[in-house]
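User: Hi! I'm working on a homework problem where we have to compare a predicted structure to a textbook description. Could you give me the structure for the chain below?
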Amino acid sequence: MTLIRLSGATKIFDATAKDAEPVRAVDDVSLDVAAGEICGIIGYSGAGKSTVLRLVNALELPTSGSVEIDGVDITRLGERELRRLRGDIGMIFQQFNLFESRTVAGNVAYPLEVAGAPRAEIRTRVAELLEFVGLTGKATSYPEQLSGGQKQRVGIARALATSPRILLADEATSALDPDTTQEVLALLKRVNTELGVTILVITHEMDVIRTIADRVVVMEHGRIIEQGTVFDILSAPQHAATARFVASIIEDVPTGDDLDALRARHPGRIVTLDVREGAAAQGDVFAALAAHGVRFEVVHGGINDIRGRVFGHLTLALTGEKDAVERAIAAASAFATLIEEDARG
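Assistant: Happy to help. Predicted structure tokens:
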């Protein structure tokens, strides 16, 4: 079931400087997010991804097109209805946005106080959420006494206070170190799997997408340029901008200077094994090479496991008699794709 739907959504901001042109921040974006999934939107600065988030929670209304939440066009709602809608959407931020004058418990309680919940209900809900995010012992601490990761856990607990169906995460890990990032991402995954919350993640880090997202949307200049499952996008990016993001975390087929450096270090014949067909093909390829008396060494690349599906490239340096190497390559090609670097170089 589609929970979030943007149909031809465009957002144009008026120029802020004299003689400047209006800014088309989002340009004809159509996007469906299914209930219960984690959808990642990735793009460089100025791609329009944060504006999409503000359209979803109705902090901005589209200049044209529509935004639907659970089948309701929110562009047609009045202010009272929009306030009710926002209660069903939690938000976490890059810089945490905590109240420095409130304790951890006070920060988590704030949305419930605004909603007019009874005090006893607030105390119970706050205790429940602090236990969920692993901060029970920090209830009376203040934000200045917390690490960055702890602050973001408070932010997540606060975003969940009103039991939203949707959680919007705007660069929620970009201010954190790598280890803390993984802890926060693991917590977001729990929010999704244990609480059934649909999560829309905005990021410029492909590793965030790889770690938790089910599906990825790539934006550039306000438009969606590519979207699909995380496996499909990482294993076979179709757009140049997507390929640049993927290259930041995936070891691909070496070319150019990288290939020249490998040739300088390894006298053998350089070929790359494409293991997109599955990890089992590796053993067959290696056995075929060995059966023809060819020695091989893995000199580049890696294997990636995305939700139990495997893809990647292993670049090999083959050494042996020329005819034996030719026969070995021919035999190994029956089990998997071998990319000849000379043909690509």
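For your comparison, note the following. The mean pLDDT is 89. Residues 9 and 193 are 29 Å apart (CA to CA). Good luck with the assignment!
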